[in-house]
Design goal:
single chain, about 575 residues, mainly beta, Immunoglobulin-like, 4 domains, disordered N terminus
Length: about 575
Amino acid sequence: MKNIYAFLTCFIVVCSTSWLHAQLTTAASGDATALANTIVGAGITVSNATINCPGGASGTFGNGNTTNIGLNTGVLMASGLISTAIGPNNNGAAGTAFGAAGDADLTALSGFPTFDACGLEFDFEAVANQISISYVFGSEEYLEWVNSQYNDVFGFLVSGPNPAGGSYTNENIAVIPVNVPVTINSINPGSNPAFYVDNPGGATIQYDGFTTVLTATLNIVPCATYHFKLAISDAGDGILDSGVFLEEASFESSLDCNDFTLTLESDGTGSIDAEDLVATDLSLCNFSFSVSQSDFVCSDEGENTVTVTADDGNGTVLTCEATVTVVVPPDILSIDVGATCRTVYYGYGPAECTTITANVSGGHSPYTYEWSTGETTQSITVCPSSTTDYYVTATDVNGCVEVSSAVHVIAVDVHCGYNEDKVLLCHIPPGNPADANTICVAATSVPAHLDHGDFLGSCSEGADPCAAGGEFQQNIAVHDFAKDLIEPVIWPNPGYDNIELMLPKELFGQKVTAQIRSLNGEVLVIEEIQQGHNSIRFSDLDRLNSGMYLIRLSSGEGYSWSQKWLKLQ
């Protein structure tokens, strides 16, 4: 049936039509060394070239820039006459049946018996650690015989040392990115169409379809000897030609850089060698290396682009760009801010303020400081009139950054009296503590009361609001404070893996939903605060990355509230 189709097509169309305007040119050649040298580019030398092709099935092409093939000059190998590739596309079944043998390697790639094979083989050495070659595969099998046994095929088969260990044996590098051999059945409008160019009625190329310009690559051991076999054949039968265009000077060697992850040392610094960024050892070629940046500090955190240069001292200089991702481990710096829960007494001057000092260790001094108040000194004195969290960000000379634990300063309002010019304190009668009572006294008498055991604030607040809860307040002192809240409170903020959300009085007794969301609205954590509770604790938040989040509250009675929360690492 396929033979009848080819005959009728050729009978209807005058196959010898000549075109007067510029077209693709071809020149048949069986000179293996000349053809190999035509495709060889920078950094590669070839030897021991041989060819096994029927007459007229191999040679060179030119004038490709006047066509839509995408390549200008180079070598053309075909399963028929290379001259068949010259356009226009005026014959749907062009081809030459040589009656020649196929190729066992290509049969294995195609999955069908092969015929009229044409192969060019040679040995090569490359100066760098990667080779590449650019090509286009075209065929008359398109589109009538797609997904049939007429799966014409070609291969670029490499044998030699594998830099990852072992050896390549006929490793086919003529594959598309999904690692599938390039054939009629693997590239067409229905399979990997992004790599296919349909050409019916095309003015410049006879083949009914062809691939886009593809590039085959392989990592190798520099200056080692490899064997390269480039071959094409018909599959299923010996009619209807296919051809592979190999771009002139595109078989070249280049330096291939790796992406590299560098974790800094405990002092916040790290370094790389240029050799670390190259996939294989270039010592066989006697290269020396340099890199545009070898030392990194915390301020380089994230991706950095560096240039690697390899020079053999004989005029061969290779460069490539590598991505070095710098990872800063946590806790390079540490900050001691002293007690992380403190009490001040608003309304009694000698106890209204507290001083917080950041003692930084690790990294490299001098350090700079930025407090949540905006101050930039090592110590700050704060006199809040309401309970407030304070934290500091410390940065060393290498750009290493650490954020301290929050210092929770509980402000107890001790104003009392008609003019609020007196001080509230808890009087404990000597020898009779059970009769303790809250009294309002002049500020001048406060020291005497404190000397015999009284304490500032009301008796219900206790002598030390921080004492029962330690550094993380979640008990009576904080809850008593929460009873007078106007809005919810997130404690601590910034925080680490555990935080507490305290509700205002108006939400007591309601069923409240609490969510932790990303800034783009994605719900990451959800909890319900049941009736009878006035707070909820979010635990085990270590799965959240450091950064800013949104905490949102809502109730069935229409209440809604949201506030940003900073998650520390």
